[in-house]
Amino acid sequence: MKSSYRQRSIGNRKLSPETLMTSYGYDPFLSEGSVKPPVFLTSTFAFRSAEDGKEFFNYVSGRKAPPNAEDAGLVYSRFNHPNLQIVEERLAVLEGGEGALMFASGMAAITAAILAFARPGDTILHSQPLYGGTETLFVGTLAPFGLKAVGFTDGLSAGAVEAAVAKTAGGKVPIIYIETPANPTCGLVDFDLMVKAADEIEKRQGSRPLIVVDNTMLGPIFQAPLQHGADIVVYSLTKYVGGHSDLVAGGVIGRAKDLAAIKKIRSAFGMQLDPHSSWMLGRSLETLHLRMERASTSASKIARWLKDHPKVAEVHHPELIARGNYQTVYRKFCKAGGSTFAFTFKEAGEAGAFRFLNDLHLFTLAVSLGGTESLISHPASTTHSGVAKEIRDSVGVTDGLVRISVGLENPDDLIADLAEAMEKV
Question: CB–CB of 266/101 below 8 Å?
Fold first, then answer.
């Protein structure tokens, strides 16, 4: 049997991503014929010769480019290892990027992407709301190092984006950072407006800012930012890609030249993902399409039930949000609404929301999202509690908002659980 582990087509037919997730990037005959990749639990790798050791260090440090991917060489697991490389190749296929990098967490991936291109005195233009950890990174952690942040709350309004761009005048903007759909409100950002903003900033400063997109909520199945002007995509791979609530990981996908700068940060800071977690991600990629499609269908049914409930003021699900040109942008850039969304009670604040959450049976009261089990949380007191209340309120993360991540249970059972708990509100 011939080796075909990097084959992307058969004859004139281009193979689908879900097909490639079962085998791409792994040659069984390099691992004693094992159909599934072993977990390579080693810290270091042997060189066949001293000359190989010298060349491999030149490759891993970026001093030289390997002749091809097979000849890049393995050095030390802080830099690279087989489980990492297999999954990185598959992520690049899914997202349509030239390459991918994996990290020990989503926040490690985001931080490395920022530090690779931003310098003291620079300004990051970003959408709001952001995941609470990202917001804290921008306004708390990085601020003492001289990095500034300017946010815009309406990524569908040309006027709002232009006003935010104007506020960045006087300093360099290396990055436009957006999260779309936003966690937890499912607010969208128009990719076309971001490209126009990058054009405007480039005219002003002479260099083009990179458009960095957190694609955790819909990617890589329901949204493809690299096809719409984005330069870099970042992920919490913990969520849908991992999909089983049993690992923590992050990812960055994009062009090879941009990834080279980010990879240097990863190696220097030791942000590498370990072999076992990498292996688990490879396992999860095989069922990613099935899990996301099933969960998205269930979430749509549950969101529509909530929309008609008399105690619910608003359901923040991409299929149901009707503000301005939201639906136009949604249909242009997204294939489905995903399975994580939020809803806001008409009258209940934190106390009422807590009563509701405490009375649920099937939903697990926990943060995170994208697992096989359904999760529910109160963002204002948990994931976004580190964000100033005035910012939370301005972007809609109020005390009466609850976030749902729908899993693989029967949706009618989940609706029955929600209905019973609603009686306590």
Answer: yes
Residues 146 and 200: their CA atoms lie apart, in Å, by: 24
How far is Cα 109 from Cα 33, in angstroms, rounded to an integer? 33
This prediction's pTM:
0.94
| Catalytic machinery residues | 78, 131, 214, 239
Whole-number Å distance between alpha carbons of 270 and 279 = 19
Task: Give the C-alpha separation, 288 to 371, whole Å.
Answer: 11
Q: Which of 211, 187, 189 is nearest to 124 (CA)?
A: 211
**Cβ atoms of 425 and 352 closer than 8 Å:** yes
Average pLDDT for runs of 10 along the chain of length 425: 76 90 88 90 94 91 78 87 95 96 98 98 96 92 96 96 95 97 95 98 97 97 98 98 97 96 95 97 97 98 98 97 96 98 92 95 96 96 86 87 97 98 91
Within 8 A by CB and 6+ apart from 262, the residues are 101, 112, 113, 116, 232, 252
First-residue to last-residue Cα distance in the chain: 63
Decide: helix, strand or coil at residue 325. Answer: coil
Q: What is the structure's pLDDT at 384?
A: 87
> Would you state the pLDDT for residue 2?
53
Q: Look at the block and give the residue holding tokens 């980010």.
A: 262
Q: How far apart are CA 337 and CA 290, in angstroms?
A: 15
54 neighbors 48 (Cβ within 8 angstroms): no
Nearest of 345, 383, 352 to residue 367 by alpha carbon: 383
Contacts for 412 with CB less than 8 Å, ≥ 6 apart:
none
